[in-house]
């Protein structure tokens, strides 16, 4: 299983420059992008299912996970009460793994 993770510091600027296209050469099963800094939900990589977790503030942090296969489940945030408002955690599970 190939999982790529990247703190991109701005999704829209990366899309505009084509910075994410080389990721396809790795044929990852999952791509995890942090600090997307947008509430828009463009197609990041064709052929991947997109799961978004936006920050409460616009243009601030946020995450997106791109998965080749449909997960069994997706969970957003943490279960710790004090951290729920700031948490931008995305969890997914497949039949053979848990991430």
Short synopsis of the structure:
The protein is mainly β. It has one helix at 11-17; strands at residues 3-7, 30-34, 49-53, 63-67, 73-76, 90-94, 97-98. It has a 4-stranded mixed β-sheet, with no helix packed on it.
The quaternary structure here is: single chain
* Overall outline: globular
How many E-type strands?
7
Element pattern in H and E: EHEEEEEE
Helix content: under 10%
User: How are the strands ordered across the major sheet?
Assistant: 1-2-4-3
Q: What is the average of the pLDDT values?
A: 83
Question: What amount of the residues lies in strands?
Answer: 25-35%
- Poorly predicted residue ranges: 81-87
Can you walk through the features of this model?
- With 99 residues, the chain is mainly beta.
- It has a domain at 3-71.
- Helices cover 7% and strands 31% of the residues.
- The protein has one helix and seven strands.
- It has one helix at residues 11-17, and strands at residues 3-7, 30-34, 49-53, 63-67, 73-76, 90-94, 97-98.
- Strands 1-2-4-3 form a four-stranded mixed sheet, with no helix packed on it. The protein has a three-stranded antiparallel sheet with strand order 5-6-7, with no helix packed on it.
- α1 links the parallel β1 and β2.
- It is globular, with a radius of gyration of 13 Å.
- The model is unreliable at 81-87 (pLDDT under 50).
């Amino acid at each position: 299983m190939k999982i790529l993770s990247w703190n991109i510091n701005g999704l829209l600027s990366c899309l505009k420059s084509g910075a994410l296209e080389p990721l396809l050469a790795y044929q990852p099963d999952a791509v995890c992008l942090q600090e997307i800094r947008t509430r828009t939900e463009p197609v990041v990589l064709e052929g991947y299912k997109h799961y978004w977790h936006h920050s409460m503030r616009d243009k601030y942090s946020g995450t997106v996970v791109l998965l080749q296969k449909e997960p069994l489940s997706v969970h957003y945030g943490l279960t710790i009460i004090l951290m729920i408002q700031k948490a931008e955690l995305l969890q997914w599970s497949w039949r053979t793994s848990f991430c």
